[in-house]
Write a structure and sequence with these properties.
heterodimer, A: mainly alpha, ABC transporter involved in vitamin B12 uptake, BtuC, 11 helices, B: alpha/beta, Rossmann fold, six-stranded mixed beta sheet, three-stranded antiparallel beta sheet, about 30% helix, about 20% strand, disordered C terminus
């Protein structure tokens, strides 16, 4: 019998809330990432976030605030360089992926005092999310929901067929940059839950699984949010019962869900 | 009479090896104008300049007297077939609706009743009404192509621009597609890029050959031997690097 007395602890309630907000944001933004094939750019942005964490430590800011500012700048930088300077996206991603990590390591080594717990930034710990970060996650989640609700039609057009969206006189460049910023915001939210290295899996696996069962973008988003909740809360309980790291458990559960869904969707498609 | 599309002295690319070298053409109202030529000859580039997707290095483009950006409202565009992901979670109806986006306003870009009415009409016209709720990946090649055409027609364009519309479908489907275009050319001007000389010959009113420079006679009659000559022009141009005669008899002016 599972002892659910743990639900009464504040830290566990925080963990559930963190899972909820993470699932909503990565279900919605992850759907765009999957349908527009932005997986590698999202991976680059998430690893670059470590540079922001380091800068936050070095200058005595909240590390997540540092990551938030830094990833936003990186995301815009990648988007603008690709658009204006005609740089190869793969190369830009590789550059920020590694240099962000490098910057983070150097900043943390230069920061005064004891070295912070890097492990929790790299692999996350949903059980240790402080109350103020829950509040931040709630606000960011609300912003994502509002922006996507307002721009749904335009973002769908841009992610489906960018060139045609341009012919339809939509502000394609600005919308693409906005989408990159939303990815950056989501990545920062997920750092606390699954960590920098594992973010990309939580961003893509629920959406990729949902895609097999849905035929419209908004239903894909809704299904993806539900799957995210299933994976994050299921992973959380499993990690508690087995006493293993939560972030990694969530990711392995999401991977298992994705793999199991493949033959089912294949059969459904006929 | 003001041309539907007027391209004047348009160049694109670097000076030494331009992709387009001082290209001029006029597509008149009710024309069905075919642009043929070898791969890399600049056909798609020219279409993108006409659509305002690429800036010309020099020269001007006018669509019914307007700049490409302003002209888009009256232009329908059928891009090359495989330019987007057919597994995208979008229904035929949603995709065709997106062809109305240039008629919508504000951040929400909400579709109004007239947008839905226009989409119903065009789905009916292209025999797609029964497929409106399907996703693209659940359509046949011919149906996918009609859906892409429907998106271009949803905005009630006066000018229809098509880039290699039949390149990925089998010959019977291509014939059916050109029958649809035949019907459309009564109510709009059509400019298309095609490799499919055999199919287009019976349908178009003018042909131009583009390989960095443009050659045309603006002729309405197209005989088999003219088409044969045009079909060989890429080979000739590559072999000699010189402009050459596309057609047997030179009545009209050369594009160059």
């Amino acid at each position: 019998m599972i002892d659910l007395g743990i639900l009464e602890y504040g830290f566990f309630q925080n963990a559930l809330l963190a899972g909820l907000f993470a699932s909503i944001s990565c279900g919605i933004i992850g759907s765009y990432v999957v349908v527009r094939r932005m997986v590698s750019i999202s991976g680059g942005i998430s690893h670059a976030a470590f540079g922001g964490v380091g800068l936050g430590y070095l200058f005595g800011l909240d590390p997540l605030a540092g990551a938030f500012g830094f990833t936003t700048v990186i995301a815009l930088g990648i988007g603008i360089l690709k658009e204006k300077a005609g740089q190869n996206l793969d190369t830009l991603v590789a550059a920020v992926w590694a240099s962000g990590m490098a910057l983070g390591i150097i900043c943390i080594s230069l920061a005064p005092g004891y070295a912070p717990d890097l492990f929790s930034y790299l692999f996350g710990n949903i059980l240790l999310v402080p109350g103020q970060d829950i509040l931040l996650m709630a606000v960011l989640c609300a912003i994502i929901l509002a922006v996507v609700a307002i721009l749904y039609t335009q973002l769908q057009a841009v992610t489906f067929d960018e060139e045609y969206a341009r012919v339809m006189n939509l502000p394609v460049t600005r919308l693409s940059l906005l989408l990159l910023v939303l990815v950056a915001v989501t990545v920062v939210m997920l750092i606390r839950v699954v960590g920098i290295i594992l973010v990309i899996a939580l961003l893509t696996l629920p959406a990729a699984t949902a895609r097999g069962f849905t035929k419209r973008l908004h239903t894909m988003m809704a299904a993806s949010v539900c799957l995210g909740l299933l994976f994050s809360i299921g992973g959380l309980l499993l990690s508690y019962l087995l006493d293993i790291p939560s972030g990694a458990t969530i990711i392995l559960l999401a991977t298992a869900g994705y793999v199991i869904s493949l033959p089912i969707t294949r059969a459904a498609r006929g | 009479m003001i041309p539907a599309i007027e391209v004047r002295d348009v160049s694109f690319g670097q000076d030494g090896s331009p992709i387009l070298d001082s290209v001029s053409l006029s597509v008149m109202e009710q024309d069905m104008y075919a642009l043929i030529g070898p791969n890399g000859g600049g056909k798609t580039t020219l279409l993108k300049i006409i659509l305002g997707l690429l800036p010309a290095r020099s020269g001007t483009v006018r669509i019914y007297g307007k700049s490409p950006g302003e002209g888009r409202q009256i232009v329908g565009y059928v891009p090359q077939f495989r330019t987007f992901d057919f597994r995208y979670p979008i229904t035929v109806k949603e995709m065709v609706l997106s062809g109305r986006l240039s008629h919508t306003r504000g951040m929400l870009r909400r579709y109004r009743e007239e947008d839905h009415a226009a989409v119903r009409k065009v789905l009916e016209r292209l025999d797609l009404s029964g497929l409106a709720g399907r996703t693209l990946s659940h359509l046949s090649g011919g149906e996918q192509q009609r859906a892409i055409l429907a998106r271009a027609l949803a905005g009630n364009p006066r000018v229809l621009i098509l880039d290699e519309p039949t390149v990925y479908v089998d010959t019977p489907t291509a014939f059916q597609f050109f029958d649809i275009l035949d019907e459309l050319k009564r109510s709009m001007t059509i400019l298309l890029v095609s490799h499919d000389i055999g199919v287009i010959s019976r349908h178009v009113t003018k042909v131009a050959c583009l390989n960095h420079t443009l050659h045309t006679h603006n002729t309405p009659e197209i005989t088999e031997d003219m088409i044969a000559a045009t079909y060989h022009c890429p080979v000739d141009l590559i072999a000699h690097g010189l402009p050459h005669r596309v057609f047997d008899d030179h009545g009209g002016e050369e594009g160059q």
